Structure to design on (230 residues):
């Protein structure tokens, strides 16, 4: 099979990790274009959309927003099997839950304290496609912004430590499918892969060890990881 499309992405973007997980799960050949976080003008034209991920398919059509992109790729390359469900109400409810709660939990775990924020921004500056000067600027100017303005407020508002928040989320998610290996049953579905993407986005950082302490969550995570064709 030829190249199915181009994924415009940031390496550290949790929404991009969602799409990447689906592409790897299906073994779809594609091109990844890691954009400079400081130069969004280099993104392909998409009306009112300056965020990643952006998916350009083989016909040069532009698709935006991670969950719709996942549904599109599944539909075109997998006959919609991962989104298909006998219980659409349950599926829709939990996809919305994953996108609402897990997405908001990524910043607190990575930037929830001054020390973790400094470690994370230093790692981001190395992982992303920054220019020479913007790399150094982000490494030292980024962490007080992410910690002091964004993460600190979220942690205070929630009241739980970032680790407790993630353990509670993994409890709620894994308890939903109980004795089954995946939310999708015997194999992952699109909800599994969306949740997996958010968890996986934390894996490049030392804070991931806090999630690894959640036994049921890691059992599910490793099972999804084993289905990737990379």
């Amino acid at each position: 099979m030829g190249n199915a499309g181009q994924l415009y992405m940031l390496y550290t973007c949790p929404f991009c990790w969602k799409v990447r997980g689906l592409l790897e799960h299906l073994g779809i050949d594609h091109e990844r274009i890691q954009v400079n976080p400081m130069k969004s003008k280099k993104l392909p034209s998409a009306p009112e959309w300056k965020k990643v991920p952006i998916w350009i398919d083989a016909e040069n059509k532009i698709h935006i927003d991670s969950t719709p992109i996942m549904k599109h790729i599944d539909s075109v390359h997998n006959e919609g099997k991962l989104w298909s469900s006998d219980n659409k109400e349950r599926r829709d409810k939990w996809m919305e839950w994953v996108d609402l709660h897990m997405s908001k939990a990524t910043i607190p775990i990575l930037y929830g304290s001054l020390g973790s924020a400094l470690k994370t921004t230093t790692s981001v500056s190395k992982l992303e496609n920054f220019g020479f000067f913007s790399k150094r600027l982000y490494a030292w100017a980024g962490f007080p912004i992410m910690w002091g303005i964004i993460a600190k407020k979220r942690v205070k508002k929630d009241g739980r430590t970032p680790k407790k928040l993630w353990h509670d989320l993994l409890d709620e998610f894994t308890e939903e499918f109980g004795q089954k290996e995946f939310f999708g049953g015997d194999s992952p579905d699109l909800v599994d892969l969306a949740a997996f993407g958010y968890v996986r986005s934390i894996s490049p950082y030392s804070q991931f060890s806090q999630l690894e302490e959640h036994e049921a969550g890691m059992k599910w995570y490793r099972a999804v990881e084993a289905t990737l064709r990379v």
